[in-house]
Automatic annotation (TrEMBL):
One GO term of the biological process aspect: lipid catabolic process
Pfam family, one: Lipase_GDSL
Molecular function GO terms recorded: hydrolase activity
Organism: Eruca vesicaria subsp. sativa (Garden rocket)
InterPro entries the record matches: GDSL, GDSL_Est/Lipase, SGNH_hydro_sf, SGNH_plant_lipase-like
Designated name of the protein: GDSL esterase/lipase
Length: 373
């Protein structure tokens, strides 16, 4: 998921700050060698800072709770860490996966992993065109193929192959294919008449299948793939459709569920049978986020419908987070940071379930188990 952002330059010192942290050695005896992240703004770590795009998060107060940058924005679409950041930390990564487009994405820095995610990106190449520039999943895989060659030069072909096979490949994508493609008002209305939901979802699955197989051919073996969250329940959808707090947009959620069912079949049946030495974990993000939305009080939140940072309407859900947006007093009490993305507090809870949870939320096993295979 993503939003239209004003364009600001990220403080340049941040690049060198991240580059100065300890780099993992190829000789470290860890089950998880590196973390490679693909997806959209839910896990973008700053790639869009280096694109001429309308989808950016490198202006305050984004990143206000991101300690490594001392609260300066880095291009993450949240107030602190993304789910991918937290998962990488908990699995033993000494540094966050560096954004592929960052100037310091080279040399031994790559050994911790690389983040290819891009706000506005989708499984389909047409997704997110409203933002002008973004990295779709096809381009992200193209970029990984370049990284893969760099690993051969860094470690030698045999060691590089083993290193990549021990690494975690996280894919969090699909929301924009609905929000910024199939469900775009007026623009996609004609397309919906000629392509029913079933056909659109099948198109997504066919493209994702090819993308995952391309990663496999480049020696990826440990995959965690997130399904699409209840996008009909985000503050933006509630605000633009003038819904009450406990209401959600039915069509958006139905599309997400339809895609999620096909995704589970793709991972747990088709690819599991055809790619015997690969491990695929299906992350049930839909139910994880829905649980937070419905039972927010049990998790210590005061609202699951109002954005902490945003502009417009009673839910601050119309315009994205920026310097002129309203800002809540306690960010830890909001499930949503902005009209589209979870807060760091919500990301921490989601990441914990992915790392330690049972088959209700992560199938066939959790990420700690996946790391140790």
């Amino acid at each position: 998921m993503t939003m239209i952002k004003a364009i600001f330059l990220v403080p340049f010192f941040i690049l060198f700050f991240f580059g100065s942290r300890r780099v993992a050695s190829a000789g470290d005896q860890k089950a998880l060698a590196a973390s490679f992240v693909f997806g959209d703004s839910l896990v973008d770590a700053g790639n869009n800072n280096y694109l001429q795009t309308l989808s950016r998060a490198n202006s305050p107060p984004n990143g206000i709770d991101f300690k490594p940058s001392r609260g300066n924005p880095t291009g993450r679409f949240t107030n602190g860490r993304t789910i991918a950041d937290i998962v990488g930390e908990k699995l033993g990564q000494p540094n966050y996966a560096v954004p592929y487009l960052a100037p310091n994405a080279n040399g031994e820095t790559l050994l911790n992993g690389v983040n290819y995610a891009s706000g506005g990106g989708g499984i389909l190449n047409a997704t997110g065109s409203v933002f002008v520039n973004r990295l779709g999943m096809d381009i992200q895989v193209d970029y990984f193929s370049i990284t893969r060659k760099q690993f051969d030069k860094l470690l030698g072909e045999d060691k590089a192959r083993d290193y990549i096979k021990k690494s975690l490949f996280s894919i969090v994508i699909g929301s924009n294919d609905f929000l910024n493609n199939y469900l775009v008002p007026f623009v996609a209305a004609q397309a919906r008449l000629t392509q029913p939901p079933e056909a659109f979802v099948e198109d997504m699955i066919n493209h994702l299948r090819d993308q995952l197989k391309r990663l496999y051919a480049l020696d990826a073996r440990k995959f965690v793939v997130g399904n699409v969250a209840p996008i009909g329940c985000i503050p933006y959808q509630k605000s633009t459709n003038q819904l009450k707090d406990k209401q959600c947009v039915d069509l958006a959620n139905k599309l997400a569920l339809q895609y999620n069912a096909r995704l589970k079949d793709l991972l747990m049946v088709e690819l599991k049978d055809s790619l015997k030495d690969a491990h695929f974990v299906y992350a049930n993000v839909y139910d994880l986020v829905m649980d937070l939305i419905v039972n927010y009080k049990q998790y210590g939140f005061t609202t699951s419908s109002e954005a902490c940072c945003g502009t417009g309407g009673r839910l601050a859900g119309i315009l994205p987070c920026g310097p002129t947006s309203s800002l809540c007093t306690d960010r830890s009490k909001h499930v949503f940071w902005d009209p589209y993305h979870p807060s760091e507090a919500a990301n921490l809870l989601i990441a914990d379930k992915l790392l330690n949870g049972d088959s209700k939320y992560v199938t066939p096993f959790n990420l700690l188990h996946l790391r140790d295979l």
